Amino acid sequence: MNAVDAEHRAHARQDLKARELQHRTNNLFSVVQAIVARSFVNRRTVQEAETAVRDRLHSLAKTHAILLDKDWQGADLAEVVRTEMSQYADRVSIEGPSLILTAQAAQNFALALHELATNAAKYGALSNHTGRVHINWSALKPNGHHQFIFR
Fold first, then answer.
1. Quick one: pLDDT at residue 28?
2. CA angle at 79 for the pair 74 and 84, rounded to the nearest 5°
3. What is the bridge-based pairing of β-strands 92-95 and 100-101?
4. Do 39 and 52 touch, CB atoms closer than 8 A?
5. Which residue of 1, 19, 72, 75 pairs with 106 in a disulfide if CB–CB is 3.0 to 4.6 A?
6. What are the boundaries of each domain within the chain?
7. Of residues 134, 89, 85, the one with CA closest to residue 110
């Protein structure tokens, strides 16, 4: 390979990385816009909305840290669940097979789990000092159809 070919390939790799970065940035902005919009629903005060935005963005940041550590190749569901539930670790049991989520699925799942944990802390088992939560999941293939069950 001559110097011109090497330079051309290096430039092509750089362009590919730039497009990938732009794609991820656009996805992140879309998620942040959805978080902000959702955080104002059913809030009585700006302070309540601000707290919701901050908490949701913190959840997203934790998931991004997991994804960065894995070079954006995905995240193990167990790690996403453990990270999101870390605040309640002594009161939460987690059980399920290793399942790798895509980056987008990991972000969405972490945000959904954040909402469930917030509700449990406000109104459910985590709203008192003795309540416990058991989280489990399974991946089945009955009759050749993939099925994911999360409890």
1. 67
2. 110
3. unpaired
4. yes
5. 75
6. 3-150
7. 85
**What is the Cα–Cα distance from 48 to 44, expressed in whole angstroms?**
7
Rounded Cα gap, residues 30 and 21, in angstroms: 14
| pTM for the full predicted model | 0.72
Average pLDDT for runs of 10 along the chain of length 151: 79 78 69 72 82 82 84 90 91 94 89 90 93 94 86 94
The whole-number pLDDT of residue 50 equals 84
Q: Is 90 helix (H, G, I), strand (E, B) or coil?
A: helix
Select from 80, 54, 55, 67 the least CA-distant residue to 27.
Answer: 67
Token pair listed for 1:
């390979």
Give dist(CA 132, CA 94) in Å, integer: 11
